[in-house]
Amino acid sequence: MSILISRKSYDDMLTHSMRSLPNEACGILIQDASSSEYDVHIHTFIPLHNHAAHPTREFSIHPVELLPYLTDKRRTVVGIFHSHPKAASIPSAEDLTTLWHTIPTYWILSLQQRENPDLQVYALKKTTTTAYHKLSFVIGQ
Ligand SMILES: [Zn+2]
Q: 95 C-alpha to center of ligand 1: Å?
């Protein structure tokens, strides 16, 4: 998968993460409808509030904040972003329980070394299968 992130998106992401300290920052990454030679082409970073109960070590995006972007036909949410104020930019056990695995890219910015921020991007796959069982029904008259 080829991925391009605009310089402005990167800068906005970094600024939002620094301002959110000591909390984890979060946001989404948007691709415009314009054509691109990249599979994922990030034009815009949208900072969102971290609604987690313990925002210094986890993040939570409120679906209501996300909804306007998910329903916008002209632009697509192609990435979920959050920062790790004190940890490396590797998904935590908590991160791997995410429900955002349907979004193609998952970005983590580590501010462990403030003068040398480390941004990494991942694709997450849900490994546990979804169970189902058959129900009965009748067709009424
Ligand atoms: Zn994390």
A: 5
Both tokens of residue 58? 């986890």
Residue among 107, 116, 125, 86 nearest 5 (CA)? 107
Averaged confidence pLDDT in the chain: 88
CA of 26 to the centre of ligand 1 (A): 10
Q: Is the peptide bond before 91 cis (omega within 30 degrees of 0)?
A: no
Type of residue numbered 102:
T
Tokens standing for 54? 């313990």
Return the DSSP state at 94: T
Quote the ligand 1 centre to 25 CA distance (angstroms): 10
User: How do residues 44-56 score in pLDDT, each as one tens digit?
Assistant: 999 999 999 999 9
Query: What is the pTM (predicted TM-score) of this model?
Result: 0.86
Task: Please report, as a single letter, which amino acid is at residue 80.
Answer: I
Q: How far apart are CA 133 and CA 4, in angstroms?
A: 42
Q: Please calculate the CA angle 99-30-48 and round it to the nearest 5 degrees.
A: 60
- CATH number assigned to the domain covering 3-122: 3.40.140.10
Look up tokens 């979804």; give the residue: 130
